[in-house]
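Example S7 (C-alpha cells).
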C-alpha cells in the first residue's frame, strides 16, 4: 500500500513537472538525424550507448502521435521509471524485508537533485536498461532454467536500451558461472 502511494505520488509529481516541456536536447538526435527505418538508424551508437529500443519507441510514438507534443514520450518514460522503483522494491524486499525495501524504493522514486533526468523523456534509455536489468536479476532468483531464459531475454532488452545494461550482463554471467546448477 505504501509503495503504491509512493509510486502514485512520484508519478503525479513527474507528470506535473513535464506538463510544459517539449522535446529537449538529445531527443532531437532521434527526431532529426535518425529518420527512416534503415538498420543503421537503429544500430548507430549515440555517444557510447546503443539506443535501439529508444529509437524504435520514438519512431513508433511519433508515427502514431506526431511531433505536436512530447507528452506520449514523457508518459512512457515516467511509467518506465516508476517500474524501476517497483522492481527495486521487489528485488530488495527478498533480501531485506518490507521496510528497508520501501525506503530504498522511495529513495529511487524521489531522486531529489537528479530530478532533471526524470523529466527528460530521452532518459527512457537508462530507465529501460535499469528496468530490464533488475527484472533479469529477479528472474535469476528463480534459480531454474525458465528464470535463466527470462533473464537472458531481459538482458538483451537492457542492452537494446543503453550501455547501462552491461553491468547487468556482467552480474548475470557471474551468477551463471558460480551457480552449481
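Recovered sequence:
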Amino acid at each position: 500500500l505504501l509503495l503504491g502511494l509512493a509510486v502514485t505520488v512520484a508519478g503525479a509529481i513527474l507528470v506535473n513537472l513535464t506538463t510544459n516541456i517539449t522535446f529537449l536536447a538529445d531527443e532531437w538526435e532521434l527526431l532529426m538525424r535518425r529518420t527512416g527505418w534503415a538498420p543503421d538508424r537503429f544500430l548507430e551508437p549515440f555517444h557510447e550507448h546503443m539506443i535501439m529500443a529508444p529509437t524504435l519507441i520514438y519512431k513508433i510514438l511519433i508515427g502514431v502521435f506526431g511531433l505536436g507534443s512530447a507528452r506520449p514520450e514523457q508518459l512512457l518514460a515516467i511509467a518506465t521509471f516508476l517500474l524501476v522503483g517497483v522492481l527495486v522494491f521487489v528485488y530488495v524486499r527478498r533480501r531485506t524485508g518490507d521496510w528497508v525495501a520501501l525506503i530504498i524504493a522511495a529513495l529511487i522514486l524521489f531522486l531529489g537533485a537528479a530530478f532533471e533526468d526524470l523529466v527528460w523523456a530521452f532518459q527512457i534509455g537508462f530507465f529501460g536498461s535499469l528496468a530490464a536489468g533488475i527484472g533479469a536479476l529477479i528472474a535469476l532468483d528463480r534459480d531454474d532454467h525458465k528464470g535463466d531464459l527470462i533473464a537472458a531475454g531481459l538482458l538483451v532488452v537492457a542492452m537494446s536500451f543503453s550501455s547501462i545494461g552491461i553491468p547487468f550482463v556482467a552480474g548475470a554471467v557471474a551468477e551463471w558461472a558460480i551457480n552449481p546448477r
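Notes on this example. The first helix runs from residue 2 to 17.
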